[in-house]
Hints:
With 352 residues, the protein is of the alpha+beta class.
Amino acid sequence: MRRFGVRGAICWALILLIIAGCGDDGAAGSSPRGFGGPPLVVTGTATVRAIADIVEAVGTTQANESVTITAKVTDSIRQVRFEDGDFVHEGDVLVELTNEEQTALLQEAQASKQDAQTQYDRLKNLLDQQSIPVSDVDEAQARLSGARARYQAIIARLDDRLIRAPFTGLLGFREVSAGTLITPGTPITTLDDISVIKLDFALPEVYLGAVHAGLGLTAASAAFPGRSFDASVRTVGSRVNPVTRAVPVRALIDNPDALLRPGMLMTVKLTTASRDALMVPETALLQRGMETFVYTVADGQATMSMIELGIRRDGWAEALSGLTAGQQVITEGVMKVRSGGPVRIAGAAAAE
């Protein structure tokens, strides 16, 4: 038993010596693995970057001009001169209504006008010869004016039977056929001018002072992934909605390729201001309650600094206070660091 006790004591003494030796080596930094040495960290630099304050919204597109084509009179359709989706120019005839009666009345009015003109010319010659009183010529002139007015009225009624495009644009579906009896208000087709698209959206009233006519923006649609459309603010609404506290805004988008159509849903990104800000990588942030901290490194020593956090964007966070440009902040290995303690930077450790 005594022998076992002596041997056990010797073994325990050797174990304690080995442990003590390893501890001394780690403290001296001679261990190749660095057990017990300063923690290894990765750092980044607090950098001044140009950032833009971006406001996002959702809007709906409208045509620059839009109308439902209808007739002015009640009559039957003689000929339809367009097809679904045709591109037409201002003044193009789309539908021709029956006009036999008006054509006959026009011929009658034209004959009456010619007769009145002949009578007036004859009496005017007689008046020059002082063969008739002036009153006869005045009556002939009145009849001529009336005949001309009736002639122009019938021409106008004939023109009402030619339904024309009021502006250049893209037609919708054809709703009528030849022989259809239509009345005023009967839809024939739709016509949209989509060379320019109106984009209507709403912004919170806090941005009312930052939005003005001419301000640029970008819009995107799920129908064209990966593509954005440049636009500019045309009008800011004159009233703020008292329920939503939002102000309506209208922007214009040039649409030369006719890709956009009325009624589309688009996301809007509006840049209200651009400024320089001190930014740090988001991975350097430590959150404790409502406060935000980062570890800065100087001369191999880490220091915890509280910062005032601004906006976050693309993996970077704005430091409104607590840092200066060029300071090194720890981005990886933060959990092993203690404020005031030594650290080893990854790049410097590799060089050593």
